[in-house]
Amino acid sequence: MNTRRDADRAPRRGRDLVLQRAKPGRRLAAAAREIRGALGLEQRRERDARLVGRRAALSGSIIRGRHGINRCKPDAGAARTTHPVGMIRLGYVCQSLGMPEPSLKTAQLGRYLKGLVVLAPIYRYNAEYVRRSLLHSAGLGLSAHRISSDLFPLLDVAPGARMLVPDLRSVRRAAERDDVHLSNHPSQFVVLSSPREEVLLNSLAIMNDQGWVMDLLGAQGSITLHGGGVYGDRESTAARLRQGIAQLALPALQRLALENDERCWTVPELLEATGGEVPIVFDCLHWAANPRRAPYEVELDLALRSWPAARLPELHYSEQWKGKPAGAHAEHITGRGLLRFCEEVEEASGGREVALLVEAKQKDLAIARALGELTHRQRARIEALVPGLAAASAARRAIGAPRADVDGAPA
Fold first, then answer.
1. DSSP-derived pairing of the beta strands 280-283 and 88-93
2. Bigger pLDDT: 7 vs 68
3. Which residues is 145 bridged to in the sheet?
4. DSSP character for 234?
5. C-alpha torsion angle, residues 5, 9, 10, 14 (rounded to 10)
6. Which of 77, 169, 248, 366 is surrounded by the fewest CB atoms within 10 Å?
7. DSSP 226
8. Which candidate, 24, 46, 8, 14, places its Cα nearest to that of 335?
């Protein structure tokens, strides 16, 4: 397929991007696999084998959320932000670059094995970081947020790491108070369709740990994965994907969503692979980069309709980094592109409430700059689609504060 010529025939929108074939993803390093094996692959194999018997009987109705996640009850004394039905919840992912101390703390496996890393203080710092990020997001009028899957690094491999996770009730209260939709997106190395047993078992361990963390946070959003590779046989890979899903612990299973990617899986292909039983996160950049894609309106509509009533549909917006392989996220996004995508989502969703996450390298600063590019009329339009932005602007006007737009600078 001539992807560039095909792109020229596509309707012109802010999502029109330079289409190139992305380079193959990096493989797991052999050394890392050996280290993870040494840290308890056999124990995880036994644990996940026990899960098979308990999960294999789970029907697709659980995956679709008919036994949905119980919405957490806010503290009686907490003032809770309410949002109108049918709105778009806008947000960004993982790190808040516009607030003081904008980075999470990390831990490298090699240094941990040498005894050079103490996890407990890292976990405490990162938990407080998320609480600060939620307050920061709410102040900007952003009511969707993706927490990092590395919030508690090495949780899946360090013995007793769950015991080191601090009390997360303050984080949970912050999310409840401002009604922030929390989601999660483990790395590309988490592959439930892998033909390699050690990769599958590691993926199950990571997913189950993320489900456990999301439970502690009372988070209602998804744990989103890609379908992985095709390995030369799409049908067999789809069967392995279904088998991997059936082995997930319930907290991860209830929140599972799959996302279309730039090479292997389109929205229709993911729906076919899972029998339509797993909701699909639509990513517009991946749609543009995938030469196998169906028409834009078809994939967007199918993805939105894949979400059961009990769950909030999620979408990803980003723009192509010029000069990089197709699917590479740019540092920033354009205001017009974001507005146009919001309008398309509002039309396709039929007024249903959705969560839209911006996947730009500059995180919250990218959203601020994009909003600063809009004219007064365009700003009014996006605030009508994303009421949280209007509420935040009104709150700033009430206290006489200037509107923050480009990189946090007053407009």
1. unpaired
2. 68
3. 92, 182
4. H
5. 80
6. 77
7. E
8. 14
- How far is Cα 9 from Cα 334, in angstroms, rounded to an integer? 22
User: Are the C-beta atoms of residues 359 and 396 closer than 8 Å to each other?
Assistant: no
Confidence of residue 1 (pLDDT cuts 50, 70, 90): very low
Tens digit of pLDDT for each residue in 196-218?
999 999 999 999 999 999 999 99
Name the one residue in this structure whose structure tokens are 């700059």: 369
Scan for tokens 């890292």, then name that residue. Answer: 122
CB 72 within 8 A of CB 179: no
Residue 256 backbone dihedrals phi, psi, to 5 degrees: -60, 135
What's the chain's average pLDDT?
83
**From the centroid of its chain, how far is CA 81?**
22
Of 2-16, 102-116, 142-156, 273-287, least confident by mean pLDDT is: 2-16
Q: Specify the pTM.
A: 0.79
Sequence-distant (6+) residues with CB within 8 A of 242 are 273, 274, 275
Q: What H or E segment, with its residue span, contains residue 150?
A: none
* Top-ranked range on mean pLDDT: pick from 4-13, 51-60, 200-209, 397-406: 200-209
